[in-house]
Design goal:
287 residues, alpha+beta, Fumarylacetoacetate hydrolase, domain 2, eleven-stranded mixed sheet, 32% strand
């Protein structure tokens, strides 16, 4: 199943080039009262809501995807977790390029040594919302990644059990302002986490370790790789992350980017693609 959120936070099932509007299933979610529990209520309820969604889709109004404004398919993650230098060729690329390591190549290490980082949830947008360049005087780069959406609370999860904690997968763009500051600051700028174009539920991607991914900018191929090239695969990343903090329903794990990162500027058009998920077109604009 492919689930999207669109327009004014309506919920849809993607059916080829159409969206079937199943927003009415929101009525099945528990009524929330302050203080709100952390995590995304819709993602947490997906197993219980799936049958209702399918039944609703059969009689739902439809709109063309081309007419919809695609938002992030996850509205309320408690955290977005990033995996730096998780592809061997990207690690070599970062060490070799002063624009990427900021005159400090000794501090660039493989993921087990460098650890993970957090991105502000306020940086999260969908494909149709685009990326806004906040500091045009500095270099801003694209990074295409497989995004994993957690489906249930995960704490000290072993890699062998990790995939059963996954709700689904999206394309992720981890947009990065270059500079000497901490990663979390430079990557948490508004619109610098793009998620979409929809959530593909985990039953449709049984093995996330064999997916081709790529991104073009204005038609030029910039990054192209396969998730088999990751240093830590999805199960190992979930094990690693959940050993530091509890992952909650809706939390997003960005799994790292391959070699080929490059600059973007206002007016550029990015097109990202991941096997079994689809294509996502994202415009870049000035603030």
């Amino acid at each position: 199943m492919r689930l999207c959120q669109f327009d004014n936070y309506r919920l849809g099932i993607v059916d080829k080039d159409l969206i079937r509007d199943v927003t009415e299933v929101f009525e099945e979610l528990p009524r929330l009262r302050y203080p709100l529990l952390p995590g995304d209520a819709l993602v947490a309820a997906l197993p219980e809501l799936r049958e209702k969604m399918v039944a609703t889709a059969n009689r739902a109004p439809v709109i063309p995807i081309s007419k919809a404004r695609l938002l992030s398919p996850v509205a309320n993650p408690s955290k977005v977790v990033g995996a730096p230098v998780n592809y061997k060729k990207h690690l070599a690329e970062v060490v070799a390029d002063p624009n990427l390591h900021h005159q400090n190549p000794a501090h660039i290490q493989a993921i087990r040594q460098s650890g993970l980082f957090l991105k502000a949830t306020s940086s999260l947008v969908g494909a149709s919302q685009g990326v806004v360049i906040r500091h045009p005087d500095r270099r801003t780069d694209h990074e295409v990644e497989l995004a994993v959406v957690i489906g249930q609370s995960a704490n000290f999860v072993a890699a062998k059990d990790a995939l059963r904690f996954v709700a689904g997968y999206c394309i992720g763009l981890d947009i990065s302002l270059r500079g000497p500051e901490d990663r979390s600051l430079r990557k948490s700028i508004d619109t610098y986490t793009v998620l979409g174009p929809w959530l593909v539920t985990a039953d449709e991607i049984t093995d996330p370790s064999v997916l081709d991914l790529s991104i073009t900018v204005n038609g030029e191929m910039r990054q192209k790789a396969n998730t088999r090239d990751m240093i830590l695969g999805v199960p190992e990343l979930i094990e690693f992350a959940s050993s530091f903090y509890t992952l909650l329903p809706g939390d997003v794990l960005l799994t790292g980017t391959p070699e080929g990162v490059g600059p973007i500027c206002a007016g550029d058009v990015m097109q990202a693609r991941i096997d079994r998920i689809g294509d996502m077109i994202v415009l870049v604009r000035a603030k």
